Amino acid sequence: MAANKELVLKMYEEMLKIRLFEEATIDVYQKGLMPGLAHPYLGEEAIAVGACTALENDDFITSTHRGHGHLMAKGGDMKKMMAEIMGKKTGYCKGKGGSMHIADVSLGILGANGIVGAGLPIAVGSALSSKRKNNNKVTACFFGDGASNQGTFHEALNMASIWKLPVVFVCENNQYGYSTAISKHIAIENISDRAISYGFPGITVDGNDVEEVYEAVKVAVERARKGEGPTLIECKSYRWTGHSVGDPGTAYRTREEVTENKAKCPIIKYGKKLVENGLATEENLNNIKSSVQEMVKEAVEYAIASPLPDENEIYQDLYV
Amino acid sequence: MRKIRYVDALIEALREEMIRDEDIFIIGEDIGPFGGAFKTTLGLYEQFGSERIIDTPISESGIIGTAVGAAATGCRPIAELMFGDFVTVAMDPIVNQAAKMRYMFGGKLKLPLVIKTNYGSGRSAAAQHSQSLYGWFTNVPGLKVVLPSTPYDAKGLLKTAIRDDNPVLFFEHKLLYTVTGEVPEEEYTIPFGVADIKRAGRDVTIVATGYMVTKSLQAAEELAKEGIDAEVIDPRTLVPLDKATIIQSVKKTGRLVIVDEGHKTGGITGELAAIVVEEAFDYLDAPVQRLGSLDVPVPFSPSLEKIFAPSEKDIIAAVKKIC
Hints:
Low-confidence stretches of chain B: none
Number of domains of chain B: 2
CATH superfamily of chain A: Thiamin diphosphate (ThDP)-binding fold, Pyr/PP domains
CATH architecture of chain A: 3-Layer(aba) Sandwich
Shape of chain B: globular
Oligomer: heterodimer
Number of domains of chain A: 1
CATH superfamily of the largest domain in chain B: Thiamin diphosphate (ThDP)-binding fold, Pyr/PP domains
Distance between the termini of chain B: 36 Å
């Protein structure tokens, strides 16, 4: 891993893209340019990037309400994403879905999802498709600590296991389900322990360490491709913001706790590591930052300049 | 023409379509070697094997969610729910996922998915295994709702459902499974959104759904003896709905009775009546009559269950009230 300079710099850049995109998302919300809400992925960038880097382009993912990071890491187009978030005709869903429903099947993105836990059986379905079609594709299923308490988690993990499906369950443990701390909704230390009851491996990794996530998902993907079945990977991280752009996230946790966790920033941490290991210079990283800043700026400008959908589009795309 | 049972017509449709298209598979509980709780997949496992007739754990939400994911990625799954009442356990994947994915993704994908299940009272199966809940899904844009009333319709409509690129809910009445009817040997399909005039008549229009078509036809024969000539229309698909055939009939007869096994309150009889009142009010010579199941859970005891759903006698009385 450490030797592959191109790959590590790419992962750094991808994390930064998510970070700056999400900051821009919050900014457009605050400026009143976004209808509705969005759920920022700030602080969890290493999970999406580590996991998606371990996938091939034609592998599938299912995502969540906090989906911008997954979509971007799987190759989503920043302009179309920002346009969708602003409800524009040029967005991924022609303005019909918004932040929580971005999908691009051509990139293997089977959709962000507004229902917590709903993506798990859908991931089982796409993995079943791959097994039936024998096309060697793997599905990575992203979901949160909160979703691991839904019935669909149990049903999906069980079904994936009995049929030995090529799916990797990536649990993003960001410590909160909206305002509810994990200590109040899960009685065990590691969510990954739940895998044992379905008969497949479960591991917990540092979700703020992009290489650790990448390595774990890579092993799970290989296992899935060999027909050995699913893996549950719990990535422990922290949700820097409130639940959504409309939630300051201060009513149910202390500022100290947030500050303490922000100090574990996956991007700063990774940048430092790259410099220390001689894989990048400060200048390299600054150049990446400038180009990403430009990209995000262009995406926001594109979205702002784009038209809203026409009223006559309301009945379009309901049925084939 | 040969006569076969409703259930065999359904199995024949499944078999023919599965031979035609490798992407089709069936997924559900006890549908493999066992052949289904109502024997609706009997013999298919032996022919197509465990890769295409997939037995599942008891996980209705997981079954439908899995089918949604498979449909989104190039398969054409048919998900069977053992009882129509179990849709309640799978409402999220049906209502929030299957019905909405295409629209909310801006037309990015198609979901060729059939959810096949049964409905109806009359078997002393009590409140959780007898309901007629199909009406709910007519209130969720993005789904299609099919209710075959004869073996002929069952086969032709199921083939159309399987070939449709949208999520289709296919409801079979449990009391119809063993009913026989004419089904041609040769290939045919029945388009959605085309009602069938099961009996032509000039005095009153009876719009009936599913098993209520059988009851209405029996009632019509009795009424004929008394000189009342009833026209019985079977919409066959509730979504899409063939309004034109119903309205044309009402324009001819001036009288309308609607018979459905769903609960009367908030059910589809109200919707059908409203359509006719909106679009053909001037042609009505009498108040529209609606017959639905009583607004109670389906009772267990035969003495109670027999008065739960509309009967032939109820239909005759409703017709006579306005003729």
